[in-house]
Amino acid sequence: METRGYAALAANTPLQPFAFERRELRAGDIAFDIKFSGICHSDIHQAREEWGSAIFPMVPGHEIVGVVTAVGSAVTKFAIGDQVGVGVFIDSCRTCENCLAGQQQYCLDGMTGTYNGYERDGVTVALGGYSNKYVIDQDYAVLVPANLELSGVAPLLCAGITLYSPLRHWKAGPGTKVAVIGLGGLGHMGVKFAAAMGAEVTVFSHSASKEADAKRMGAEHFVVTKDPAVFEGLKESFDLILNTVSAKLEINLYLGLLKLNGTLVVIGLPGEPYEVSAFNLLRLRRSLAGSMIGGLPELQEMLNFCSEKNILSDVEIIKADYINEAYERTVASDVKYRFVIDASTF
Ligand code: NAP
Ligand code: ZN
Ligand code: ZN
Prior knowledge:
Layout: E1 2-7, E2 16-21, E3 29-38, H1 41-47, E4 64-71, E5 83-86, E6 89-91, H2 97-100, E7 112-113, E8 133-137, E9 142-143, H3 150-153, H4 159-169, E10 177-181, H5 185-196, E11 200-205, H6 211-217, E12 221-224, E13 238-243, H7 251-255, E14 258-266, H8 278-282, E15 287-290, H9 296-309, E16 315-318, H10 323-331, E17 338-342
Bound molecules: NADP nicotinamide-adenine-dinucleotide phosphate and zinc ion (ZN) (2 copies).
One zinc ion is lined by residues 92-93, 96, 98-99, 107-109.
């Protein structure tokens, strides 16, 4: 299937137009026309090899939404015309205990990433969502409720689920105090979800200009982190802190803000390790945890939650030829709050 997209050919060169072929439909596959594809900071980390060596040419993109155009002979879950989404993985072993529990992102054999990796045959390089057409096994796609507008849905497939899952796991809700560090693509979804679940939400940001937006999204409090004195008055305040920052932070400052039994969840993925103070963890029996995206059942649950509560990502829709500028602006924290590529421009 002839496909047009954008690819990185090396870690230090701009992305450029790239034509390639996707497989023809197998019995269990669906094909869809991509409508929108979100730009996640993970795309930038990988295209620039900030997490280690990568596979080139790389077609990034794991926030993919579109409309089904064809279904294989054995497909039962989708019909032509359905709105569909694909996130950060396209396959997994399907037999380990985590896959069977619907936690495919934690597959014991390793999830199959949407790009920058090999499909399960071990030879086909997976090419992601910065493109106009897509083919996937029906079991690894999700149905997007018809009332949701697709451009604002694309970021839900990674940014959305990545914040929804820890908020559910650590039981955010009425009576809990939740902090979100970093108001970017992931962080802004965390604010919307935590507020919709009934938690009291605080945003920690190094961009003072984002305060009004944070409050519009549901935050009650907004803390500008440039002056370390702000941390003093907030010690022992939060049940749950979600760190979505793409750069390395002074994590001990934030551990000190947790209440008894509070948890700080590492979500942002800077390439270098954190130094954690043992004293900060022991005091008040605090936990430092991690969380990675979410499994397929939870992805569907999140989309249904969005449909019910009318939650979408705040997006800036761009054309394909703006991708490189969008990368620069994302790195500079100048994004409101997710760049989404109009796939008709590939
Ligand atoms: P993003 O849109 O660039 O947002 C990151 C935000 O972090 C920025 O908007 C900024 O918010 C803050 N920030 C950036 N640089 C900073 C610095 N030097 N100091 C302090 N704050 C800074 O990125 P994203 O797409 O949300 O992704 C965030 C991170 O999560 C990335 O590392 C990404 O790879 C990772 N990620 C993890 C998962 C997972 O499963 N755990 C999934 C997807 C992405 P303020 O301006 O408000 O400070
Ligand atoms: Zn992502
Ligand atoms: Zn598995």
